[in-house]
Sequence to fold (326 residues):
Amino acid sequence: MTSRQTLRLAPDAAGLAEAGRLLRAGGLVAFPTETVYGLGADATDGRAVAGIYEAKGRPSFNPLIAHVATREAALALGRFDAAAEALAEAFWPGPLTLVVPLAAGSPISELARAGLDTVGLRVPDHPVAHALLEAAGRPIAGPSANRSGHVSPTDADHVLADLDGRIDAVLDAGPTLVGVESTIVACLDGGPVLLRPGGVSRAALAKVLGRPPGTAAKAARAEAAPLAPGMLASHYAPRAHVRLDAVSVAPGEALLAFGAAMPPHDGPVLNLSAAGDLAEAAANLFGHLRALDAAGATGIAVMPVPHDGLGEAIRDRLARAAAPRD
Ligand code: TXA
Ligand code: MG
Fold:
């Protein structure tokens, strides 16, 4: 990853305009919410989202929360059932993330969703976050703004301690209020399920829902391994058998290439990045897997992807796609 100078921006008109400009240009801007600081990038731009994983040094692709300024904007990005609507009405803006099926035509990038056909949506309750989201004019993907494995940051100094030189800017609005992350509730088939406890209590959810939310069998592991096969009913895995580090292509297989040199093959082929660029490869990963799967191949031969930088996360996700599943 390229090192860059990280600006500390004041949350005034000039700072917000600069932060919005950086986000629209595909940059990385850490921003305050009422829970913790988030590391923001344009959620509709896979290359920008790849930068988040790169800056955090995250060894795998977790789905990211898409932050928007208003409830109306969130409602347009997902499909809300009655429970999701009630929770949105009661707790937005606020420390609640709703995981709902993706709306048709929703512009959230595949990488921000880690290939899932669901999306985590949140309307933060913080004036600076609100102003930034208005300035950016698009959904902003944002995990907590810490290096992978570190605790979530609750002020701009924590953010810089982890990410100085790795992101474009941090909007400094002082310490956050809640200090723990948002509560995550999935509203998919089968009723609302609490995936992560957080700023909105289980009792408060129960009051709005009229009954306690369900608990995911492995909810304790939701943060660590949301993509483990079986963890979520909606997890994305190709139907085709995925074969890693392939140096040749077998009959019936499609080819998922990386780099300029490709083995001979006359079936379906897509290249993660002909230039060998790992950020481009990350942005293309889920879409290409999906497209090759749809092409009807029995298997997908994946050329070697390097281990360094984003390559670790790409390889992790490919290994999960290749693993036996239930
Ligand atoms: O308070 C918060 O939620 C903070 C602020 C910045 O908004 N964000 C945050 O993001 O804690 P992160 O990435 O550290 O945790 C988000 C969690 C991840 O564990 C991810 O697996 C889950 O949300 N998540 C997001 N979208 C999901 C989806 N479509 N399905 C299942 N889980 C999802
Ligand atoms: Mg986190």
Remarks:
- Confidence is low (pLDDT under 50) at residues 218-235.
- Residues 278-294 form the longest helix (17 residues).
- The radius of gyration is 20 Å.
